Every structure is written in structure tokens, then in C-alpha cells.
Amino acid sequence: MSTGLASLQQRLERISRQYEQAFGIPPGDDWIVFKLQEELGELTQAYLAATGRSRHRLDSTEARAALSAEIADVLGFVLALAERLEIDAEAVLAAKWLKHERD
């Protein structure tokens, strides 16, 4: 695993532990899965807004910022969960996705 993604995975997991403490969440992995589901819903909303298919009208700059923030949230929780479950995110991405890469 490269230092970049491994380090990011570890840092995000530490932040998730701080989040648990700050909001009185019982330690465990379930809340991350539930939070990930919430964030995926927010990403869907932001995507619909950014593509003009939402009741919420945002200008393109606001829509792009909202979409970017929700992508960051989903990625953050996925990587934090991977770290907690001792899953090497880079290795599983390479095994699952990069094997299909063509030159």
C-alpha cells in the first residue's frame, strides 16, 4: 500500500473516533455504516441538484461545492470503515478495479 492512501485511511479513522467522542456515539463500526448510508443519500441529493434535477436550485458554483463535499464525506467514511475493518483499500481497489485497466 502506498503511504498516501494508507496514511489517509488511518487519519480518517482517527477522526471518526474523535467524532464518536464528540457526539457521544457508542464505539463500534455500525454507526459508520449507517452514517455512510446517510452521506450517500446526501450525495444523491447533491448530484441531482448539480445536474438540474432537484427542487433545490443552486448556481453551478454552489452545486459543484455541495457535490464535492458529499463525495468527500462518502470517501471519508468508506476509508475510515476500511481502516477499522483492517481492509487495505488500495489493495482491494487494485484487485477489484485496476485489473480491468487497459493500456
Structure description:
By secondary structure, the chain is mostly helical. It has one domain (3-100): Helix Hairpins (Orthogonal Bundle). It is 72% helix and 0% strand. It contains four helices and no strands. It has helices at 3-22, 30-50, 60-84, 89-96. Keywords: Hydrolase. GO terms for molecular function: hydrolase activity.
Key descriptive features of the protein:
hydrolase activity; NTP pyrophosphatase (Non-canonical NTP hydrolase); 103 residues; mainly alpha; hydrolase; single chain; Helix Hairpins
How do the helices and strands line up, and which of them pair or pack?
Elements lengths: L2 H20 L7 H21 L9 H25 L4 H8 L7
Brief description of this entry?
With 103 residues, the protein is mainly alpha-helical.
Structural class: mainly alpha
Whole-number radius of gyration? 16 Å
Structurally, the number of domains stands at 1
The amount of helix comes to over 70%
- Fill in the CATH topology: Helix Hairpins
By CATH reckoning, the class would read: Mainly Alpha
How far do the termini sit from each other?
22 Å
Specify the number of helices: 4
| Sheet with most strands | none
Overall residue-averaged pLDDT value? 94
Global shape: flat
Structure summary, number of beta strands: 0
Protein name: NTP pyrophosphatase (Non-canonical NTP hydrolase)
Keywords: Hydrolase
GO molecular function: hydrolase activity
